[in-house]
Amino acid sequence: MSNVIINLENIDITFYQKKRVIEAVKNVSVQINKGDIYGIVGYSGAGKSTLVRVINLLQVPTAGKITVGGDVTYADGQVKLSSGQLRQKRQKIGMIFQHFNLMAQKTAYENVAFALRHSGLGKEDKDQKIRQLLELVGLANRADNYPSQLSGGQKQRVAIARALANDPEILISDESTSALDPKTTKQILALLQDLNKKLGLTVVMITHEMQIVKDICNRVAVMQNGLLIEEGSVLDIFSNPKEELTKEFIKTATGIDEALVKIEQQDLVQNLPKNAILAQLKYAGTSTDEPILNELYKNHQVTANILYGNIEILDNTPVGEMVVVLTGQVDDLVAAQTAISEAGIELTVLKRGV
Ligand SMILES: Nc1ncnc2c1ncn2[C@@H]1O[C@H](COP(=O)(O)OP(=O)(O)O)[C@@H](O)[C@H]1O
Ligand SMILES: [Mg+2]
């Protein structure tokens, strides 16, 4: 049986306004597997939210085919479900947003209860369900608080409890942490990760922040001007990005850009000697930095001066990045670069001594 829970095939979404035609989404195909935490990353206006409204069954695409949970929901610009089926399908997809969208005049408890109004549950079952949901998101003691009495993170937790009320298989988060501070963001991401594991929930994370993708996603798609320009496992994309925009997004998540500015200013780099190169090394998986650098000296008499080092765990695999000055005889430097490449480490020369 296929593990694909959301399948988008060649989706176009075009808006026709009086004088303008806006192609918000162009020929996008994506497969999301059950249990994925799937990131869709792109700048504002890339078409992310529009694409989500299609997955969410709120927007009929102009062209293309969509299958959600094994059923074709849209094909060739038409809805393929009855309104009853459509309603049922929508209930299996939870949604959270940047601005929480809670009802201000209702308590946390009542906000969650509202999502259960058509559930058919009896009074006691409903009460039990609501309390379980609030417990699940860590708000058991906040049931009677109004949104105005809750912090941003707590409000988003209420929204998550509400989104989970009808036991969805899919949770879509559209910039759900964009209005939160970094610490609260981490906590909400940890909660989503926990729900993914505990409930087997498939999560679609729409974001403009690659850091979020790095923190919790296992796959990612990059969107630009309505097009999906790159897609893959987070590990592959971070260790081997192909598109310029993807590289730009990754830089924002690794901090190397900031580090590079500082590195550039160092005396050693400003006055790089003739027998030296400034190089960036990237590796993923088993290759580790230390032994190879020792070997460079042992085998080629090339010394490595580490100016920057960073190692992260992406999807259970160590991914490292270093900026080093390699110093040695011309031939030895060439041999050292070959040895590095052969060890499966990606080497980029940033600067050569003159
Ligand atoms: N209902 C609509 N009518 C016309 N244009 C729209 C509509 N919704 C979105 N757009 C346009 O589609 C493009 C993509 O928007 P959106 O999906 O919101 O991007 P993102 O979520 O990546 O910031 C933008 O140019 C936006 O103005
Ligand atoms: Mg958006």
Automatic annotation (TrEMBL):
<dbReference type="InterPro" id="IPR027417">
    <property type="entry name" value="P-loop_NTPase"/>
</dbReference>
<keyword id="KW-0067">ATP-binding</keyword>
<keyword id="KW-0472">Membrane</keyword>
<keyword id="KW-1003">Cell membrane</keyword>
<dbReference type="InterPro" id="IPR017871">
    <property type="entry name" value="ABC_transporter-like_CS"/>
</dbReference>
<dbReference type="InterPro" id="IPR003439">
    <property type="entry name" value="ABC_transporter-like_ATP-bd"/>
</dbReference>
<dbReference type="InterPro" id="IPR041701">
    <property type="entry name" value="MetN_ABC"/>
</dbReference>
<keyword id="KW-0547">Nucleotide-binding</keyword>
<keyword id="KW-0029">Amino-acid transport</keyword>
<feature type="domain" description="ABC transporter">
    <location>
        <begin position="8"/>
        <end position="250"/>
    </location>
</feature>
<dbReference type="Pfam" id="PF00005">
    <property type="entry name" value="ABC_tran"/>
</dbReference>
<keyword id="KW-0813">Transport</keyword>
<protein>
    <submittedName>
        <fullName>D-methionine transport system ATP-binding protein</fullName>
    </submittedName>
</protein>
<keyword id="KW-1278">Translocase</keyword>
<dbReference type="GO" id="GO:0005524">
    <property type="term" value="F:ATP binding"/>
</dbReference>
<dbReference type="InterPro" id="IPR045865">
    <property type="entry name" value="ACT-like_dom_sf"/>
</dbReference>
<dbReference type="Pfam" id="PF09383">
    <property type="entry name" value="NIL"/>
</dbReference>
<dbReference type="InterPro" id="IPR050086">
    <property type="entry name" value="MetN_ABC_transporter-like"/>
</dbReference>
<dbReference type="InterPro" id="IPR003593">
    <property type="entry name" value="AAA+_ATPase"/>
</dbReference>
<dbReference type="InterPro" id="IPR018449">
    <property type="entry name" value="NIL_domain"/>
</dbReference>
